[in-house]
Amino acid sequence: MKMILAALFVVLLLSTAALGGPGTVKTSVGTFTQTNVFFKPPESIKDIGGGYTISTSATGDEKINLDFETESTFNLNEDRMISIDTGAKTSASGAKSFGMMAALTQTYPTENGYRSSIFQTHSYTVMPYLFAIEQLAGGKASGDTAGGYNNNVVSIGDKIFNFAAKSDYNGDTLSEETYDPSISTVPGFGWENGFDYINTVNECGLEYTGTLSTDSALLVD
Amino acid sequence: MRYHSKSSVRSVLISALFFLVIASAASASVSVGVTLYNSDSVVSENVNVENANYVSSAVLLPYTGFADFPYSIHSSGSGASTSSEGKFSDSISATQNGEGAKEVDASVKTNSGSFQWSKSIDSSSDVSMAIGVSSRITNGNLDATYSNSNSAVEKEVSTWNSMYADKSYIAAGLLSSSGSGSSLDEMENGFTSHIEAQHLGKTAIVDSDVFELTDSEGADHTFSDSAKLSSGSASLAGSLSILSNNKCELLPMVGISGGPIVAVMKFTPFYTDTEKSVFEVQTVPKDNSPISFRTVERTMPSNIKTYESVTMSMIAKWF
Question: What is the predicted ipTM?
Fold first, then answer.
């Protein structure tokens, strides 16, 4: 039953943008930015690299404003891996749905191939009415550790609702969400968010990927 | 006139074979070995069953094209368990003109489960053979091995308050196997699985464990595995998920193994011949410690539904 409801939620999110009728989407805007930084330590013949990818999009009826800003810091750690600290702020108004995905990637060569680790967060907010949303998302990845956050402030007229999620592989809590119970007054509201920790080893002709993912969905009947 | 001639030839030279194996009494075991051969091919089959039945038939002709038949040897059969505790093994091998030996094998043992399988063999310009197997356990154990001349898959799955179903197909150049399972309710459930795939000189193993040692409702688990070994590539995958119900909050904790729900996955790659590691054992979570979960009843307005899940997955590919 839980799987069915979760699947229905995904269908709901997708169909919001795809179907006609009262929820017809007339405009959509999005941003996508990707940065890769490579270091070449003196004793290494191969580059050590990393980067971030941030994608946001919003859909609405007539006019959507989407403002986006990001800042990142890259450092080389012990000539082996890089650390990345990234934060992104997005503001959207006049939207009926808003989605984002942000990922940090580290890649380093090994004697027999290469290894990489990815930390990413994503969220999707859908509303039956036009709303404004301000989102702060960020993450840090350094060596074998990573973590991040995903905060959303949703405004409908004068009403403000706060939703937040954080994930910290270093501490003892992998995923912790904070919901705003006052959203119960807005039937049709939906919020999905999650975090992914992805590790890849590609050595000696064998490629392995291990993933630890959290996902959370909220629906208001 | 020609028709009568062909009919008479058919009646004389076509050998039809049929055998039936039944071993349905407790611990009853039956073994059958069959060899079919003509001027083109030699096909052998060995079947062992315990608490299962099996029916097979075969048509044996002098050569391909004889009496307009598109093959010189054709055999098909199927079997099924007759008890929740049973096992079978079916091994088929063939050569054509004394060369190109091919072999496919399947064996399954269930405890608190059931299985069924079918096989087919055709010898014409080439020899094709395949075995299809499906099995299912509920609160029980499954031990299965599938192999052909180039590759092999081994599965060991145990479930508590959970079910698991497997479907596998073994042909001369392809071996595929996939399974999935889920908890039957949210209390006192768990599973362990060991999936091993050997192909192209490498062996990869995915081990998965989930234990929900809680007597209160809160979370279900699902798990799945998939192996596909074809002529030039191999893949092995596994995943498991912990899912909360809409009344509970799921709190996953890394590095703390003492929670009421514990899950971990392990990946082991090595060279088949030497058993030397391709690289070190990998785990999810990455720090080689289990992930622990607590479920906490959520106090939310009744029209708010929340669903939380944690998914662990592994996939490996090699060529």
Answer: 0.91
